[in-house]
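Page 37, continued from 36.
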């Protein structure tokens, strides 16, 4: 599934899905001293460590073409990693497992090929509570990509001992769905929305209609009446979870 999704929506991905430095620090800490890393569902390579030898795995040529590094790229899917047991110090997967056709299979493959496993995913319950979904696009919460397995299941599958909350900063530069929680005007930009799989998978006419409603609510103050308390926060829990097997 992931290749089909990102071949269609990933064409300007590198422009808006840049690694946020605060999230990057948390991922780097989880990777620890790993010298060899396989990035599964790597896409454009966000959050890959610069001080390790990285092998990227991704099935989408559109995503791979946007990479600017020199890491070798293997065209494969998570469920069938073409590497031997324990081939890497660490395996990482960043905001990708909700696109895998066999999540358990892919996670088991990561655990097979590396001693350390780091998975950035999201808690679907917290994620679905976002004002963008509850107020304007509740259809997102019915999409298959929104019904990812919970972080506890991920932890059980890979044998992880800890799950960390990853706060979403108010000025987050990685344009995933929750990134602009304090900057609602950003969701009016079609190019920004095109880099969010949940929004990009909905009928364009539906999204345009709801974003026109958001624009109206911003003009007349309705959004601020409902969510103005967010403007005083520096970060929120948007459901991002870092699952780590040390």
């Amino acid at each position: 599934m992931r290749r089909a999704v990102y071949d269609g929506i990933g064409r300007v991905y590198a422009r808006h899905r840049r690694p946020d430095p605060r999230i990057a620090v948390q991922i780097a800490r989880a990777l620890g001293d790993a010298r060899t890393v396989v990035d599964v569902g790597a896409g454009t390579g966000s959050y890959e460590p610069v001080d390790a030898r990285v092998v990227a795995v991704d099935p989408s040529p559109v995503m791979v073409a946007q990479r600017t590094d020199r890491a070798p790229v293997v065209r494969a899917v998570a469920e069938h990693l073409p590497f031997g047991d324990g081939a890497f110090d660490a395996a990482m997967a960043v905001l990708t497992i909700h696109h895998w056709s066999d999540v358990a299979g892919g996670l088991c493959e990561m655990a097979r090929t590396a001693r350390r496993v780091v998975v950035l995913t999201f808690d679907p319950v917290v994620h679905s509570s976002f004002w963008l979904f509850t107020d304007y696009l509740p259809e997102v919460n019915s999409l298959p990509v929104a019904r990812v397995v919970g972080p506890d299941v991920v932890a059980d599958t890979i044998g992880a001992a800890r799950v960390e909350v990853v706060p979403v900063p108010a000025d987050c530069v990685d344009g995933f769905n929750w990134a602009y929680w304090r900057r609602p005007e950003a969701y009016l930009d079609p190019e920004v929305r095109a880099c969010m799989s949940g929004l990009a998978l909905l009928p364009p006419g539906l999204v345009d209609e709801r974003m026109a409603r958001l624009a109206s609510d911003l003009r007349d103050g309705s959004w601020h009446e409902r969510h103005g308390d967010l403007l005083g926060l520096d970060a929120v829990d948007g459901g991002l979870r870092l699952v780590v097997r040390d």
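The longest strand covers residues 114-122. Flag for discussion at group meeting. The chain has one domain: 2-245.
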